[in-house]
Design a protein that fits this description.
Blueprint lengths: L53 E4 L2 E9 L7 E5 L8 E5 L3 E5 L4 E4 L3 H5 L12 H17 L5
Parallel strand pairs: 1-6
Antiparallel strand pairs: 1-2, 2-3, 3-4, 5-6
Length: 151
């Protein structure tokens, strides 16, 4: 019997997304990516800053990462959606990230464009408050209960 998926909004599921030296082996250590990663090479590519990476929902592109945080239990992405939803930014909890592709500079999330578009409005002045975080976490937790990720 398969265990149900447990969504943890503010924790990374893909170790390649976190700047953790224990996950550095995920990257190809023989490759020189210093031009693409701001001086980082293969040995520390697993912890590359995700700012500027394209973000892909399950049904298409939603924008680029504007900011990424790696604080344990409080990690998220701020995504600039550009013209997709009139330049609106969205806050994606790290738990929505399915995987990070450092070769293509893409972050893949396992939510649809509609689910992301319907998320709570991002406000740069209140996004770090506990109330807003709870609102976003509750929204995405509900989306995982209603539409579990496919494996």
């Amino acid at each position: 019997m398969q265990q149900p998926f447990v969504f943890e909004p503010w924790a990374w599921r893909d170790p390649a997304a976190t700047p953790n030296p224990d996950t550095a082996h995920i990257a190809d250590a023989d490759r020189d990516d210093s031009a693409r990663t701001g001086g980082q090479t293969g040995t520390d590519l697993a912890g590359a800053d995700l700012a500027g990476y394209h973000v892909e929902a399950t049904d298409g592109s939603i924008g680029k990462v504007d900011e990424a945080t790696y604080e344990v239990g409080n990690s998220y992405l701020v995504v600039d959606t550009g013209p997709w939803i009139l330049g609106r930014k969205v806050l994606l909890p790290a738990g929505t990230v399915l995987r990070v592709d450092h070769d293509d500079n893409k972050v893949h999330v396992d939510r649809t464009k509609a689910q992301i578009k319907d998320s709570p409005e991002y406000d740069k002045d209140t996004f770090s408050t506990p109330g807003y975080r709870e609102q976003v976490g509750t929204y995405y937790t509900g989306s995982y209960r209603d539409t579990p990720p496919t494996t």
